[in-house]
Input
Amino acid sequence: MMSATSAMEVNAEARRILAVSISKLYASRTQRGGLRLHRSLLLSLVMRSARDIYHSSSRESEGQSGAQPAAEEPMDTSSSPGNHAGVSQAEPQPELISPEPAAEEPRSPEEPCESETIEDKENLSPARQSRKRRGKASVAPDFLPSKRARLEPGEERHAAPLGSCRVRAGESLAVLSLNRVIPAF
Amino acid sequence: MNGVVSGGGGGSVFVHLPTLTFSISFASCVAADIISTVEFNSSGELLATGDKGGRVVVFQREQEVNKSQPQRRGEYNVYSTFQSHEPEFDYLKSLEIEEKINKIRWLPQQNAAYFLLSTNDKTVKLWKISERDKRPEGYNLKDEDGRIRDPSTITSLRVPVLQPMDLMVEATARRVFSNAHTYHINSISVNSDLQTFISTDDLRVNLWNLEITDRSFNIVDIKPSNMEELTEVITSAEFHPQQCHTFAYSSSKGSIRLCDMRQAALCDKHCKYFEEPEDPSTRSFFSEIISSISDVKFSHSGRYLMTRDYLTVKVWDLLMENKPLETYQVHDYLRGKLCSLYENDCIFDKFECVWNGSDSVIMTGSYNNFFRMFDRNTKRDVTLEASRENSKPRAILKPRKVCVGGKRRKDEISVDSLDFSKKILHTTWHPHENIIAVAATNNLYIFQDKVN
Output
């Protein structure tokens, strides 16, 4: 059983790793040679671990102290835009995924930029981002929410799994829909 | 590449792990010259390197002309340089295709010419490297400059004669195998039948015939119908050295599958599955990343498989699937630093591993330009460094040691002083002799062992 302090430490560590991961995913969009599937997959696995540990250590701290874990601590991470957005845009939640029971399929990175190829007819995934070009500076990436998320076309097909998500009161870090992280590019 | 420092053999006996002397290094300072692959050919006479700029440089071992100095080993000199791949642009996906050479594999020599396969992320090419040392001269219809002569001036028949000329080494692209991979090619492997080869990307393995470029057979496809269910990718694949129907592929989850092409056209069902259960006590945020296999190599005997993950090298017996035969710690002192290595991206580095000719010693790279050798019989291991400062011609390589804690001895280097920008990802071992080539960023080091 973790002490309150170490639960908080683990919590902070998990948040830091999540922030670093987000900035890496963001940076990989502009990588020469295109998105690397292997790297994207590994990043998403780390993010999932960090997210799960963040949740469980949050619960630990809550259980121990009966209070919220410390609110946004200043994060000692690089100052890339991805980071700032990930830290500051904490409250509004996009699609939430609660800690799934082990049996449920884990979310995985969407194949990079494969949306429109003929090959993907077999692919049932509805989560296709718009391929409309966006100005680099003008629009924030999808996975860094600046406002309450709205349902995109095709979202309805996610209704069943999403419906089972429970919103955690007072979660202070954006919980990401990992399967949407990659197709945001 | 430029800057050749020459050296040669000296004289003392090695018993198990070779005592290596510094032989040659080739260096350059341009980023595009970062070496991305090294490979000896099957006789060891040639050594090929590929770089980030899409170039291939082939070195050839000097024939030992000086019989009176038998201990003077043949050195490797540049034999041929050519641009294998150029940067391309995929207009459909708005993606640049890097020209970086991911892998080079030689074909065994069957005639006077040499053949190698080189690949970037999307296209495999077969290159023929041949020598030309004769030139036809004495054309009847052309003058010496090659201009067509006025037919009215030609009064007799003259047959061109082959005259010797300065040796010229030409590389020509004989086949281009393209448009078969949606994802990034990570490996190629030539079959022992010498007629086919496989190319592997993150999700698929394709079988080609060396003569046919307009079609390939997909023999492994792990792409899920719903990409959101993707949990693992293929990281490397290799044909068995003797059995032309057997190949193995490694995954990002730390498992290896052995497949038999006789079983079915699509080898999605493995016939052997090698995986070691994870030790729950070492679980961390980064457990998945460090268990991802970066390289898989069959032993020359075909009895064993070697895999490299981030912290270890493992030798597997093909007859035992539930755990490796041997596990070697490459740089376990990094286990406590995984978070920093994640932040600086080093945790994604893909180290390769190699067998020596007799399968008794295995070698792999590490950071700070260190590389490690493990003797499977004596269980001894050594850490060596590829650096210009420490490499005088014919100098014996001094073993290095990393201090993991407590008092640091004089010659040791502490973990915090390691330079993580200096990594040795690519190494190759001569098929018969104790000669190794080590790529340290844009420097190539060749080491030979000392002999009496």
About this structure: Confidence is low (pLDDT under 50) at residues 1-16 of chain B. The first helix of chain B runs from residue 287 to 291. The CA atoms of residues 133 and 167 of chain B lie 5 Å apart. The helical segments of chain B are 287-291, 338-343.
